[in-house]
Design brief:
The protein has 8 helices and 12 strands. The protein is rod-shaped.
Length: 333
């Protein structure tokens, strides 16, 4: 059907209320008619297409009259006489020229190798990117997307891009396997490494990624707890005995019964350590006993029997006990 017909009523061609995140909108089966005007708003370009080929671009906002502006312009740049009733099909493609921000998140966990865990540690990531249509690649945009789609949004771009993001993350995170607990401290470095890779992918569609960020990493709840425990040991200078004592104190504050068998084991191990400290350094052992609620012996008097922990095996002693009920060691001997 001819595009320009002098007998048709005039119309206004515009993209008046674009939805947020839409990168372009193409008029489908809408003809520019004699007497019509095309309105270009700030933040928009209008691409004039003829049979899928970019014939001209109106990038300055304003009102363009079909007869006095568009037809002479197309005739000049194309070297072809355009006019009404010529049978040439011309379409208008409105492009959003603004930068658009879009969030992303991995669709499934990425397993990262970790010593002692055959299956690795499952890691998820999220972040955002900023994209914009490349104004120097409108023909690429038309050939790869706009020629077959009426609209294309940044969410559509995200779906196409997630595979590349996840592959890039897997490659870069595998290099950080030894420092998986410190991934959050490296988000800037990892983001900078992924940016050119995702940008190279979107350039195939005539779109550029102007910024890319990894915001945070997350682990399954059980894995996160183990990583925090490991980090706690690191803060104590890898002193396991000190970590056990801290764990015992936490268990006593929360109530012994709630800790379960694991808490009892930690408590016994911490008690054994404090007992050994008592033998090696009586003064220090006295202070530890006082911290646990055990009274210090008075000057010139005998130490009370029972209570506290056995200095040999770490078992909790009943008050008044003369011997350890577990190993038989004499209390105070």
């Amino acid at each position: 059907m001819p595009l320009f017909k002098s007998k048709q009523f005039s119309s206004v061609i515009e993209w008046a209320d674009p939805e947020p995140g839409v990168l372009f909108h193409r008029y489908d089966n809408v003809e520019l008619k004699k007497g019509s005007v095309c309105i270009v708003r700030p933040g928009q370009d209008v691409i004039i297409l003829n049979s899928g080929e970019v014939m001209g671009v109106f990038s300055k906002d304003g009102r363009y009259n079909v007869e006095s502006d568009i037809i002479p312009f197309l005739s000049t740049i194309a070297g072809v006489k355009f006019g009404f009733d010529t049978g040439r099909r011309v379409e208008a493609l409105f492009v959003n020229t603004k930068d658009v921000l879009q969030n992303w998140g991995t669709r499934s966990p990425i397993n990262i190798e970790f010593p002692g865990l055959p299956g690795g540690i499952p890691v998820r990531a999220n972040g955002n990117f900023v994209c914009a249509v490349d104004q120097d690649s409108y023909q690429v945009l038309v050939e790869n997307i706009a020629g077959v789609q009426t609209e294309f949004s940044v969410e559509d771009l995200r779906e196409r891009l997630l595979g590349t993001i996840e592959q890039s993350l897997m490659a870069h995170l595998s290099q950080e396997a030894g420092t998986v607990r410190n991934l959050q401290a490296k988000v800037g470095e990892i983001s900078g490494a992924i940016l050119p890779e995702v940008d190279a992918e979107t350039k195939k569609y005539g779109i550029r990624i102007k910024d890319f960020k990894v915001m945070s990493f997350s682990y399954p709840e059980g894995v996160q707890e183990k990583l925090e425990q490991a980090a706690g040991i690191g803060l104590l200078g890898n002193n396991v005995a000190a970590y056990q004592q801290v764990a015992l104190a936490d268990g006593l504050r929360e109530g012994g019964g709630a800790a379960g068998m694991a808490g009892m084991f930690v408590g016994a191990q911490a008690g054994m350590q404090m007992g050994n400290n008592f033998v090696a350094n009586p003064g220090q052992g006295q202070m530890q006993g006082m911290a646990m609620g055990q009274a210090a012996p008075q000057q010139g008097g005998a130490a009370p029997t029972g209570g506290g922990f056995c200095v040999k095996c770490g078992t909790a002693l009943p008050v008044g006990a003369a011997f350890c009920p577990s190993c038989g060691n004499k209390v105070g001997g």
